[in-house]
Amino acid sequence: MDFFNLLKKHIPRWVILLIDLFVILSSIFIAYFIRFNFSIPVEYSNTFLYVIPIVLLVRLSAFLISRTYAGIVRYTSIKDAIRFFLTIGIGSLMFVIMNFISYFKTGLNFMPTSIILIDFLLSLFLLVASRLLIKTLYFENTNKQDPNKNVIIYGAGELGFITKNTLNQDETTNYNVVAFIDNKINGKKIDGVNIYKSENLIKVIDKYAVSHLLLAHKSNNKKEKQRIINICIEKNVKILTVPQVKDWIDGRLSFKQIKKLNINDLLERATIELDKKKIEKTIFEKTVLVTGAAGSIGSEIVRQLLKFNPKKIIVFDQAESPLYEIELELTEKYNFSRFEIVIGDVRNKTRVEKVFQTYKPSIVYHAAAYKHVPMMENNPSEAVSTNVNGTKIIADTSVEFGVEKFVMISTDKAVKPTNVMGASKRIAEIYTQSLNQVCDTKFITTRFGNVLGSNGSVIPRFKKQIENGTSVTVTHPDITRYFMTIPEACQLVLEASAFGKGGEIFIFDMGESVKIADLAKKMIKLYDLELGKDIEINYTGLRPGEKLYEELLNDTENTIATHHSKIMIAKVRKYDYNKIATKIDNMIKILSRNDNFEIVTLMKDIVPEFVSQNSEYSKLDTNNSQETNNSKTFINLNEIEHIKINNSLIKN
Length: 652
What we know:
It contains 21 helices and 22 strands. It has 652 residues and is α/β, with parallel strands linked by helices.
């Protein structure tokens, strides 16, 4: 068995103890030789024979008590060095005490004080150095087994240093940390490893043939982090993330806790600053009803509400199994008991009235809705029944029972809608806004784009397709969408609801739109797959009602800034409540006939900017367009006649 194979095995403790004693023996010999310039006087050489056994006995006793021999040598750390310092220091202090006793009784020192000092320094140095030598030889040999796994750590702070040690100490990995990236600490070294600025990342990757980058930096500079991630994706460098300290098991970081980059990190943005006092003032000791509470948005609103001490949360939805999951989460994970699980349908007026009568909520967050564009395009009656009539029932009941605030969760698809789903949400917006003008309840609308990980979101679909080895389906090469994380969206909803005075449509800063095809390509690379070789992207064409670009504002609208940089108020035209209510009632009455074209025709009447795309209902827009053109032609002829008359009057 060669030396390096021996290093890989756990050396018996008694062998380590013998080695330490040999080091101690060597140290005392060297101390005498150094002190007397390699010529020990006779008076000291005579005492040398009984000094050695005493030194070994004292050191052995100290080793046994402190158990310095019990640690694994290749995992030697600063704590071990400190333990050696204390152990050797206590032994040397014993020698000093022996000197006093010996001098008091015989007039001679047990051992020259200078030798005690030299022996202390030598023993400490040799013991620590022997440990570090073995540790270095072990890891140098281990890392040579796979020279391709060169690693960069992004972050040269304490977390980065701990991450490096974790990699070094894990026998299952062969990662070799070749560089740190940190803009605040650059041009220096940590444990012999150079620290570079992020602007040099590409050069460092090429220089060391880097295969992995570990994110061990909790910076608020999200743009810089995104740049680092994008460079790594382009250079085919795998990205790993280090969990936050609070998530470490038993307060220690292990390699198994280091995970692959989450897709959400690709779209991460700066942390949102909330006015928590204002939100708590709105929520504190209030009964809050959340509709659609089993969905991705509704359930997250429930979680966010927990922070602000509501009196009770009414978790309202018709989905039985997801409600059960929410119930378990609230009781087991959050240890929260002030809630009620209520199964019901927002379209059932009797059930809704019973809920309001029983719990008397002060605030309503209305998240219940159908959101899937192609499905609603094929089922307009259901879209109107839930998104319009369901909203109307919840809103009317809120007014009846004196709710303080009603917050409706809308969508960017309600802006210049091109599909039934978006149009149904726009009608719901119009109704609640108009209702706000005739009652005391404050109706507030929040409008935002796609949220990561929500039901029906593109990212879970891509993830499933990649893991199943099938081609990734994208509707169009140029299609783009705005994205926001679910917690971020819900935090902004709470912020807007706290500051809303009624009648506003709050829109959120969604950042930059993301090309879906580019997102798919990045996800494929994150799975260590090669596009065109391991997996394909299949462009399927735009689906019924789908458009290439989403918008947050209508062309005829503009915005008003608010106290929060990420929240704006859309300036929209006002609608007469009686007229809108009559039109909506008429539309609801015909739902039972399930005549899709009749329903969509009435929707287009309420929302004139609703122009269908890639849909069978586009013919309705053609008819409307022809009628409009005929009307314009008639107007133009009248204008011509009017001009002729005016000209004749001028001549006369």
